[in-house]
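Protocol step 4 of 6: structure prediction from sequence.
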Amino acid sequence: MKSEDNTVIDKKLVLKGYTLNELKEYFSSIDEKRFRGEQLFNWMYRHLADTYDEMDSVPKVLRVKLSETTGPINTLSLVTKTTSPQSGTTKFLFETLDGYKIESVVIPEENRTTLCLSTQVGCPLDCKFCATGLMGYKKNLSAGEIFDQYKLISKEYEKGTIKNIVYMGMGEPLINFEQTLKSLRIFAENVDTSIRLKRISVSTAGIAPKIIELADTGLRVKIAFSLHSCFDDIRSRLMPINEKYPLKENLRAIHYYAKKTHTRISFEYVMIDGINDREEDFFELVKICKSLPCKINVIPFNSLEHMNPTGFSAELKPTPKERIEAFVEALREQNIIVTVRFTQGDDIAAACGQLAYP
């Protein structure tokens, strides 16, 4: 039996990223008791063990066997971490076992600390306001590599510090659907008492069929939908994926998700000067928000200068702060819930839309 992604390092199967059921099946396949799968799950995901030697409830002969026949438990190594002196936001740079680099971010807030996870090395969607899109696509991350961002980062903080997880780092989670789903199933086993599915958000640029598929899994995670424009022509210019999955199709999927899961949708809205901050943008946004339970996360556009952008990306500028405030106030007057995610970590290229590594 192999995991869905069949991760192999040096001809050895990597078990990190296997769900609880997959681990039970794996041990059956090697003529071991199925409950060994639950033991290994607990050691890898609850106790955050780094080696098989630490697993003292597992017989030594089995630990030796696993050490000799399977790959390493840790799928990532920490390269550097950088903390913003302005906001306390910390960016972590990791290296995968096959030599790729990814970034994750911890955002401290007054009542909670949020961990922003990556699901791909780079991103294939080429959104014009996002540094990750400008760096291009390298590969999907395995469920183990997604989880190990949480594992390695959580060890840097007191237990229970990280209370929220957002799949909003490098990459499009719903394109890497199977591995994203497997990582969510791992978190669904309550591997950390401070993390529940209701505290996890999955961001998407709009992969409509996968939004519906995620709703049907029964995993009631939150969806953060990258809206950014209510008009298809503008949205397609900002986000080429809109050509394949137009806004109307995505809104049907979002309505289905909200009804199926009984969760409130978050609309992500990066405000770009002269692009999506006009009067007509406001009225269309109100119309969409009145149609389903939702809130809007307004995000000032963050600079892409560190990527030396060209073309349309180089033309983008943030909406002035006073116009953002007026836009937000007008939305609130329409009884729409709005949160303004003022820039944190832009001094270390860790703000929303800035994650990239060559």
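Step 5 (inspection) to follow. The longest strand covers residues 76-83.
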